[in-house]
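Our consortium's second objective concerns turning raw sequence data into structural hypotheses that experimental partners can test. To show how far this objective has progressed, the report includes one record in full. It was chosen at random from the queue rather than selected for favorable results. The single chain below, 324 residues long, was entered without modification.
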Amino acid sequence: MFYGAGRHASSGSEANFFAIRLARTFTKRSKIAKFEGAWHGAYDPLHIAMKPPFYRPSSGGITTGSQQDTIVVPFNDFEGFKNRVKHEQLAAVILEPVLFAGGCIAADREFVKALREYCDRTGTLLIFDEIITGFRLGLSGAQGHYGIKPDLTVLGKIIGGGLPIGAISGRREVMEQMDHTKYSGLEYAYHRNTFSGNAITLAAGLATINILEHSPVYEHIDRLGNMARDELNRIFQDADFPAQAVGLGSIFCIHMTNKKPLKDISGYMHYDHAQYKKMLNFLLENGIVILLPEIMHGGISYAHTEKDIKHLTSTVEEYVKLQS
């Protein structure tokens, strides 16, 4: 399970907002580092560089000033990271350990370890955004998978059983700066909102955790995830079709490129986008809903069965044969 003190919010976006504010309060620094391809919600300083071209604004209505303290850094490239931040004092490095919307690309273990060591050395807070990986990669999330503790963890969705919720947890001495009985003025990181800690949401979250603890959920969903990726890659390789399936545990993504290895979201630039849209539409016509029109990623649930995975893979195989 996740460690440390915690605070609730109403959504993952909101929890990331409070986590960044807390990190800046604790370190007395302004700059943050955010990785290319990572999705952290709608908070302006983080709503940047989700997909190439990274210089292009991700939405209207976002001012240059709101993002001037955000340094965009390359994923899975520690030397590139160091080069971009070498003249900066960072308040935080925020990491999505598996780029979900960015293509289900998992961080290399050595990369995460190097970030932890950098943050320890420079007095920077390491934040894990586990809104997707939290409880999906196990009850201890990505930090359990990698064996590395961040200073702060952001959670959402699953801890409320799918109802609206977000949360920030982490080192007690950091979290305490949200305590208005101990701190005030610029030493206090303001955190209040009307619907955080909603009793119905928390009850649903406790019920979900009880199921995750006492049912073979992870054995089931991880097995189906491996089955999906292995069979999809067999189909692509046998047909010499320019695509590949990647992911970790129960999450997967079909990338419309045979460029390997995929270490970050840059593979998106090599996509055959016309082919991608054709496959996406073919899947939809056959009852398979994929989350994004730009990158074909999905998450397997406890309700899914081998039959569902076989439907996915057989439909993809039918599409590939039609293209040959």
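The partners drew two points from this record. The chain is about 35% helix and 15% strand. Residues 217-323 form a domain with the Aspartate Aminotransferase, domain 1 fold (CATH 3.90.1150.10). Both points have been shared with the crystallography group to help prioritize constructs.
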